[in-house]
Amino acid sequence: MTIQLPDAHSGLRTYEPRTEPLVLSPGTPFTCRTVFSAAHVVADPYADVSPDSSAAVDWDATLAFRRHLWSHGLGVAEAMDTAQRGMGLDWAGAAELISRSAAEARGVGGRIACGVGTDQIADGSLSEIRAAYEEQLAVVEEAGAQPILMASRALAAAASGPEEYLEIYGHLLRQSAEPVILHWLGPMFDPALEGYWGSADLDAATETFLEVIAAHPDKVDGIKVSLLDAGREIDLRRRLPHGVRCYTGDDFHYPELIAGDGQGFSHALLGIFDPLGPLAAEAVRLLDTADTAGFRELLDPTVELSRHLFQAPTRFYKTGVVLLAWLAGHQSHFTMVGGLQSARSLPHLARAYELADGLGLFPDPELAEERMKTLLSLYGVNQ
After folding, report:
1. Which of 253, 286, 290 is nearest to 268 (CA)?
2. How far is the C-alpha of 258 from the C-alpha of 292, rounded, in Å?
3. CA 278 to centroid of chain Cα atoms
4. β-bridge pairing 3-6 and 12-15
5. For residue 184, what are the β-bridge partners?
6. Phi, psi dihedrals of residue 5, rounded to the nearest 5°
7. pLDDT at 10 over 90
8. How much is the average pLDDT of 337-358?
């Protein structure tokens, strides 16, 4: 069987899908690395909503996908940007997601960390921003999950320099019950975060970031760095206080960063580990046996898919992630909260399908082919 896929030049090309998937079995958590998958949410396709409505979530399918990740030994990073925080999922929806997922994690013994931000306010004074963070921190802690202090659009807009970041984050770290993960999300993921940590100069911003950590090393479990700059991440992780982890959020260079070098390595908190979950878990288990070459051999070929999904404008990578979840059979439809399924072109989606199929990511290749043909037919591409 073949499928006609659109190319980037308004033409069609013939692709022959693979017939057998990779066989990837569930397994226990890893010993050499801590690995989180930032997970997407599944929209309710029958809800009568508009792009301006609050998100309508299919809770059964959303939680089933998290059980899928946990079954392979991965942790779940919940209510992060992969779950469309600030791009369709508002704070009310995120709070319910955190509560439901944390309860599910307790039931199956899964690891979970949840995003703490300020998205219940669009803007505000520094005291209002601090209060918004505190409200969300309390929700996450009461749910029994590890907090991830996310970058705040409101703080980026209100802060005049590094001092405000030092004050806000210092206050939050002093009152947190357990060590948190700090999240530095670059402007390629969210343009509103340009100049975070008080400067558009990344060297200066790094110094402020490190100052926050150095003042409260006992309250920082680790940092998630999403700057798509492997060299900067390596330099930063070498300067972290002893015991503070670096969780790579670099969806362009993750194999080399997780594998590490003679001076250290990164753990992982990645959106690309949503579609790659079972394969990524298989690869990290090879690291558990000190088989770095096998780890790279399995994970390196996935980078082309990841770079495709996360190509500029990077913030729309979620569309490809949800497409692949649908094609893989994890949900019954290709609908997203906020109508974000329309955010990528048909040639982009077709290439995502081709790359994922080539990696063997679809448990049922025939189902994936059938669903891709259905999507193509809606755009007038007849087979």
Report:
1. 253
2. 10
3. 15
4. antiparallel
5. 225
6. -115, 140
7. no
8. 97
Do 161 and 198 contact (CB within 8 A), yes or no?
A: yes
For residues 145, 110, 353 and 337, what is the CA-based torsion angle, rounded to 10 degrees? Answer: -40
Region 51-78 average pLDDT: 96
12: β partners: 6
Which residue is associated with the tokens 């005291």?
127
| pLDDT in the model for residue 43 | 98
Closest CA relative to residue 161, chosen from 196, 136, 193, 188:
196
The length of the chain in residues reads 383
pLDDT of residue 50: 86
156: which DSSP letter? H
Q: Phi and psi dihedrals of 3, rounded to 5?
A: -135, 140
| Selection from 308, 309, 248 nearest residue 284 by Cα | 248
Determine the Cα–Cα distance for residues 293 and 192; give it in Å rounded to an integer: 39
**CA angle, residues 107, 110, 113, in degrees to nearest 5:** 115
Q: Which two tokens stand for residue 212?
A: 């926050």
* Residue 56 identity: A
Rounded Cα distance between 43 and 40, Å, is 10
Query: In terms of DSSP H, where are the helices of the chain?
Result: 59-71, 91-108, 126-142, 153-158, 162-175, 202-215, 230-238, 254-259, 277-288, 292-299, 303-309, 317-327, 346-359, 365-378
Question: How confident is the model over 219-245, as pLDDT tens digits?
Answer: 999 999 999 999 999 999 999 999 999
Question: CA 198, CA 160: separation in Å to the nearest integer?
Answer: 7
Model confidence at 383, pLDDT cuts 50, 70, 90, reads: confident
* Rg over CA atoms, the chain: 20
Longest dimension (CA), the chain: 61
User: Residues 6 or more apart from 201 whose CB is under 8 A from it?
Assistant: none
